[in-house]
Amino acid sequence: MSPSAEPVPVVALLDVTDAVLERLLSLALHDADADEVTPPLGTAEGWNTERISWFRAYHHAAAAGLDGPGRQKTWAVTADGEPAGSVRLRRVPDGGTGPSAHRGVALETGIWLGRSFRGRGIGREALRLVTAQASIAGARLLEAETTAGNSPAQALLRSAGAELAAGGQQVKARLNLS
Hints:
- The chain has 178 residues and is of the alpha+beta class.
- The chain is built from 5 helices and 7 strands, in the order E-H-H-H-E-E-E-H-E-H-E-E.
- The longest helix is centred in the last third of the chain and has 15 residues, at 122-136.
- The protein is globular, with a radius of gyration of 16 Å.
- The protein starts with 10 loop residues before the first strand and ends with a strand.
């Protein structure tokens, strides 16, 4: 059966409680490259103590939500009830850039999925769900950034209607929500 013929799992966003965080960390450790999930930290390559500590601290801080000190919110992306990755919304400090940006109404999103969950429509549904959350939060603009070499992420963003602009090794996406 080809991947496009497989049924799309039921995708949901789940608040990251302590129990969910441990399941999400387990997924990340076993099914994602550390560079896809965390910033480069520590001296050892891959998943190391510093990156694991950062992962936990990051999700704990984001539990306070968009109006908390971290000004962001993360969710576990689940597929048929199993953790598949994570998605976030973060307030853009200056309200976005460019002519379509409006001060205070722009949010940024980012997503990672475990390798075994990619290519099954989960990312598309997670992006749809987080876009709905951005609209509920009052955003008129949703931004994202990826690398020039990440063609699957670019295709996902384009499929949602985002405008992409390349600059060096970075690609910025903007999706008008109003």
